[in-house]
Amino acid sequence: MSITASLQPKPGLRVLVTAGASGIGAAVARAFLETGARVHVCDIDRSALDRLITETPEISASMADAAVPRDVEAVFEDVRANLGGLDVLVNNVGIAGPTGAVEDIDRAEWERTIAVNLNSQFYFAHRAVPMLRQSSAHPCVIAMSSVAGRLGYAFRTPYAATKWAIVGFMKSLAIELGPHGVRVNAILPGVVEGERMNGVIAARAAATGVTVDAMRDEYLQKISLRRMVTLDDVAAMAIFLSSPAARNVTGQAISVDGNVEYL
């Protein structure tokens, strides 16, 4: 196989993308579809799922709260029915969580952030791994962490804690599953353009008492390339990690962030 050909995933891959109806998840789902993959997504947002299915009817979908085990079980029933197996799991679910000083963070918000961002990684891997072991198509797990999974993040402690934990979970799974030919990596997006980042910037501006424009400029000054990344930048990395070119890439936390120097 040529180098150029190896950069494309094998056509017909069976792919599950969690939180796949919008944002990074939808960009990843669409990118896989463009490579000839069969794609199933799940999401908690019914209206976003409806829009995705309307725009991209080739993608099948389930409505689910990734922090609820019975919902995850139902997703895998749909995966078996629609895909007949699984070659790639993109564990993308995540919420921003609360912004504030640690003494001001509500315990319920802390626990919800842990449940959505971290527990979901376990619930989906727990069900996906037996299916991935049966795959002969370079099976892999891609866990979506964050640049906050390698840097401290003041006033965002619940989010940062989960994103660091995802990297530890990924590295442990890579060791555990390597002998079975299943690769496990994490993508660490940086400051991603879009509505979600706009909300994060606004919340952090309010928490620290500065204007939104000043906070946006502060974020850009922390990035070596002085620009945010796009959804497609992150999706492209997911495609690479699922391709034959990445067959010996496992246990890696790969930043797609323009080199965020600090948070």
UniProtKB/TrEMBL annotation:
Where does the source fall among the domains of life? Bacteria
Q: Does the keyword Oxidoreductase apply?
A: yes
Gene3D superfamilies named among the record's database cross-references:
NAD(P)-binding Rossmann-like Domain
Q: Does the keyword Zinc apply?
A: no
Keywords attached to this Swiss-Prot or TrEMBL record, sorted alphabetically, are: Oxidoreductase
- Report the PANTHER family cross-referenced here: 3-OXOACYL-[ACYL-CARRIER-PROTEIN] REDUCTASE, SHORT-CHAIN DEHYDROGENASES/REDUCTASES FAMILY MEMBER
The protein depicted here goes by the name: SDR family oxidoreductase
Which species is this record about? Noviherbaspirillum pedocola
